[in-house]
Amino acid sequence: MEKFAVDKNGFYGEFGGAYIPEILYDNVEALKNSYLEVIKDPTFQEEYNSLLRDYVGRPSPLYLAKRMSEKYGCKLYLKREDLNHTGSHKINNAIGQILLARRMGKTRIIAETGAGQHGVATATVCALMNMQCIVYMGKTDVERQKLNVQKMEMLGATVVPVTSGNMTLKDATNEAIRDWCSNPSDTYYVIGSTVGPHPYPDMVAHLQSVISEEIRKQLLEKEGRETPDYVMACVGGGSNAAGTIFHFIDEPDVKIVLSEAAGKGLDSGLSAATIHLGKLGIIHGSKTLIMQSEDGQIEEPYSISAGLDYPGIGPMHAHLAKTGRSQVLAVTDDEAMAAAFEITKLEGIIPAIESAHALGALAKMKFKKDDVVVLCLSGRGDKDMETYIAAFENN
Ligand SMILES: *Cc1c(COP(=O)(O)O)cnc(C)c1O
Fold first, then answer.
1. Which atom of ligand 1 is closest in space to residue 380's alpha carbon?
2. Quick one: 360 and 242 in the same domain?
3. Which parts of 3-77 fold into alpha helices (H)?
4. Which domain holds residue 302?
5. Distance (Å) from CA 130 to ligand 1 centroid
6. Kind plus residue range of the DSSP H or E element containing 346
7. Ligand 1: which residue has its CA nearest to atom 1?
8. Which atom of ligand 1 is nearest to the CA of 193?
9. pLDDT mean for each 10 residues of the chain (395 residues)
10. Residues 112/114/115/121 CA torsion (nearest 10 deg)
């Protein structure tokens, strides 16, 4: 059988690794040598799990969506990460990494953010744990995600607008890495997805794996078996997808169907469909698929969803797709918007526009009536109301 876990050098097949400036070598090495030991330590687990339960509100419900099930001819369960404190799965990771940072004696937390969900989650946990918090955010995103910027500031974080490049997530990440290089001894960099140098992708996957751990228990209760026929999720960098599939990866009977953002269409030149269109390269410390031109220049991605608008992809997802373990579908802006309005109408749930990309894949599938399908609803739609209202007014 294929091996899907990371190897000791941080590779998933040909993807991954740790391509970092020398100044960060000691930091990344310390993290690499301690993360598994720390997150498996019983005292860490106790602290982490009690915060997940009492602060985040876990376990998140596994909800049988009856009207959507009827529409798509299957038994569709929604894993409700949208009900978490701060509105998405990002808080699971932020809590875990900041607990880890505290154990490593770090006093200063930095993070990058795109739409602002990871920034808000990080600022929230920093308030809770009384840590200094600096969030790098592209100036374009600062302007289009005002509410999240105001939340971070109210929570006591410093938001630094980044004016290089396209002024979005990629540029914010570059700036966070630059900060880390200047302050390697007291600073911990909280990465928000399964991207970056080893051990981040594997660490973030572990911290999000609570999602599939809960799914197994909840399915056993509801269906009398721990494994579904399908698991589905959207992929930006890949963290909610990694958490959703983590405890199913080595069970080939569980089919993995992921959605990436096709933007205006795969051939339009305006998309963020990295697995379909990307080529091998190195970005933010990791060898993976990247949207790039013939001569290796990174191409600016586009998606209606800020959380999927990243030119790279987590190395584990590049590997899962390449080996055929996962099927990756490209879902356009229009398909995601239609899916968002459909679930709102049928189930009374307004999803994050990222999660709507996972929902948009349902129409491309052919299920059998008794197939059990679990789809990760990664976040709620509050932050996307302006986008939804604009579409609403045009129809
Ligand atoms: C950030 C975000 C995503 C994309 O990130 P992943 O690491 O791929 O999960 C998806 N959904 C929501 C709600 C997000 O906030």
1. 13
2. yes
3. 25-40, 42-51, 66-72
4. 57-88+209-394
5. 26
6. helix 333-347
7. 307
8. 7
9. 86 97 94 94 97 98 98 98 98 98 96 95 98 96 91 98 91 96 95 98 98 98 98 98 98 97 96 96 96 91 90 97 98 98 98 98 98 98 93 80
10. -20
